[in-house]
């Protein structure tokens, strides 16, 4: 099976609650992801604007940008087979109300507060995973990792 990398983020609403942060971290480990990198960070407003540029103009954009730069978050590079889809499935739908109805066991159903304060982020394609990993971990080189570190997981 081919290992895939994805970017996962625990957003400020969830990091603010130590038990929620712990539960989400545990959820990652319980679902066969390997934590390749992990860091805590705080965004400036312009980081938020840049990361979510595709949503500029949407009615929730200001709210989103403010929220994402409101306090510490935790970012992960996660590896497993089909990591992008598995992490998206685990998070559940963007909108909390829908998540509670269609995927009651998902992270957003269980921990999400509103459609904006929805606890986690996950890349949605191979292209966005590459871009987003670079955005959060500019010092992380996928090719180096594939050569030097990925073989260690197979050993
Ligand atoms: P996702 O985070 O599931 O990839 P997205 O890329 O469509 O969803 O939107 C990015 C974030 O913007 C989302 O996590 C929360 C916020 N958002 C999206 N749609 C929203 C809405 N209808 N109302 C409020 N916030 C929203
Ligand atoms: Mg998205």
Automatic annotation (TrEMBL):
Gene3D superfamilies: Nucleoside diphosphate kinase-like domain (3.30.70.141)
Signal peptide (UniProt feature, chain positions): none
Enzyme class of the recorded protein, top EC level: transferase
Protein name, as recorded: Nucleoside diphosphate kinase
Residues that, per the record, bind ATP: 11, 60, 88, 94, 108, 118
Keywords annotated in UniProt: ATP-binding, Cell cycle, Cytoplasm, Kinase, Magnesium, Metal-binding, Nucleotide metabolism, Nucleotide-binding, Nucleus, Transferase
Cofactor requirements of the protein: Mg(2+)
Species of origin: Takifugu rubripes
GO cellular component terms, semicolon-separated: lamellipodium; mitochondrion; nucleus; ruffle
Entry EC number(s): 2.7.4.6
Subcellular location: Cell projection, Lamellipodium; Cell projection, Ruffle; Cytoplasm; Nucleus
């Amino acid at each position: 099976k081919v290992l895939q990398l994805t970017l996962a983020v625990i957003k400020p609403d969830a990091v603010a609650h130590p038990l929620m942060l712990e539960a989400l971290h545990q959820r990652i480990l319980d679902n066969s992801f390997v934590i390749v990198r992990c860091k805590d960070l705080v965004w400036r407003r312009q980081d938020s604007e840049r990361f979510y540029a595709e949503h500029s103009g949407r009615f929730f954009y200001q709210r989103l940008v403010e929220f994402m730069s409101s306090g510490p978050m935790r970012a992960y590079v996660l590896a497993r087979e089909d990591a992008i889809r598995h992490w998206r499935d685990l998070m559940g739908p963007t909108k909390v109300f829908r998540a509670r109805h269609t995927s009651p066991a998902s992270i957003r159903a269980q921990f999400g507060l509103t459609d904006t304060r929805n606890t986690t982020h996950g890349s949605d394609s191979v292209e966005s995973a590459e871009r987003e990993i670079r955005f959060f971990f500019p010092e992380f080189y996928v090719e180096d990792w594939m050569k030097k570190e990925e073989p260690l997981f197979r050993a």
